[in-house]
């Protein structure tokens, strides 16, 4: 049968010789023990540790296992990924998603990428470095904390002031500067500038003073922090300066671009069904079917009449109905009212037949018909040499002339019945000035390239560039000229009356203007017999507003970004190497980078096990109204010589 016992608490008297068991005591820490109490009967098992002691050991073990290597690697990887991703996006957008080329003459990189988007990417990239500097300094506090821990671990009795291995232990002032650097990471007061001022304003210590009384030297930890922060800030500001240079020197440029043209069903097509896509018919040629039909219809005519019908390809008719309906298209072409054809001038002033309407933003090459004319006036010395210009394509089988009458070149005091200098113009009474213009007209088979007008303000407009020209056959020349010179006409001279100058000074001469108008008239008159043909090639062309970046500014920007990335890699590697075998680095780093740690240590309440918690916010525990702080003068209670109490300015609890 079990016997019940009543536990008795016995407290030994003050004279008792019982002493507590020997415990480890730090020589600088005083411990106080209360008298022991005993219970009877004794427990059969050893007493369990106190709950608070178990929590303390658990928290300490957990803190010892916690490493900073993984968070350092993850954070550095995120910084590098952001930095390199934006840089890669910039280069890819410039030269992969868009076309780019180097222009040595302007020392620039020209890309089809829009300038606004390019500069947006550079601006985002330039913001990554300044934002990353505080984060990198937070990681660098791990490296400083590892050195601080190692220096603190070697401190033994009598070694605290010998200066060997202790310089890595900061003083309170140096600790506050380190916290400002690792937490602030900028140039503001209390961080880099104040730390530099502190290091360079140290006064030499008195050699005769005791070692413990000499002024403490700046810890190497502070110097390393200053150099690290200074180099990171210098690189980040260099990136910002290069980005500013890019913004100031970059300009938008107009870049011609072309892509394959997709044909669509159009009335201006060689597709007979006209209901399916086909190659655009911007080329022009004489309708051979029409000429064959005209020759067949004139088979029974006399040779003279047959020649009129056959030579004009049916444009001129000998029937009673006349040729009005066939000549009407030529009038519409000449007055720019035709829906099919138009006459334009190539870059060498050759008149060529082109479509009446051309889709916007296309460039093409096609064959067509052309006419080139050279004219001269009949002066005192006979027929002149003519006003030649452009390319000479050889002799022509067709010549023409006109007696021109004009009042446009007379002066009020002009003498009558006399030549105006040696220009060929003869003033005859009150009928005006007379002249004789003689012209050589050449029909050509032309290959040209069309370029649409550019959006640039300096663009010359649409251009017809001559690629190749050769003399047309005699038959084609006859077809072209028949309608234009079927009878006597003064249409050309009336169209250019008053144009140009008669003495060749001050611009284009009358002969040149007459020659251009004659070529245009001769080609347009036979508009009824021309038909569309397919182009040789066609592409859709559109001017792209791209970006022109100065190579020097872009190179400096990319180099600065690369240097910053290398700095991050270097510091990350150093942190991993020097902290992998050191315990409690994360906890020590909190005293360098987190101001909450200092506030909690000074004014907060916490259980001993919470000092091992890396989450500083949990160290404060549950705060009550009694934990509110006061700031202001605090009465110390001591009296000075005058019997007055002394006060200090402080933050206090309560």
What's the main sheet like? 13 strands, antiparallel
The total of beta strands comes to 17
Strand content: 15-25%
Mean pLDDT reading: 78
What is the radius of gyration computed over CA atoms, rounded to a whole number of angstroms? 50 Å
Structure explained in plain terms:
This protein has 654 residues and is of the alpha+beta class. 37% of the residues lie in helices and 20% in strands. The strands form three sheets. Strands 1, 2, 3, 5, 6, 7, 8, 9, 10, 11, 12, 13 and 15 form a 13-stranded antiparallel beta sheet that branches. A two-stranded antiparallel ribbon has the order 4-14. It has a two-stranded antiparallel ribbon with strand order 16-17. Strand 6 (351-355) and strand 7 form a beta hairpin. Helix 3 (115-153) packs antiparallel against helix 4 (172-184). It is elongated and about 140 Å long. Residues 1-42, 271-277 and 386-391 have low confidence and may be disordered.
Summarize it:
The chain is an alpha+beta fold and 654 residues long.
Keywords, separated by commas or semicolons:
alpha+beta, 13-stranded antiparallel beta sheet, two-stranded antiparallel sheet, single chain, 17 strands, disordered N terminus, elongated, 654 residues
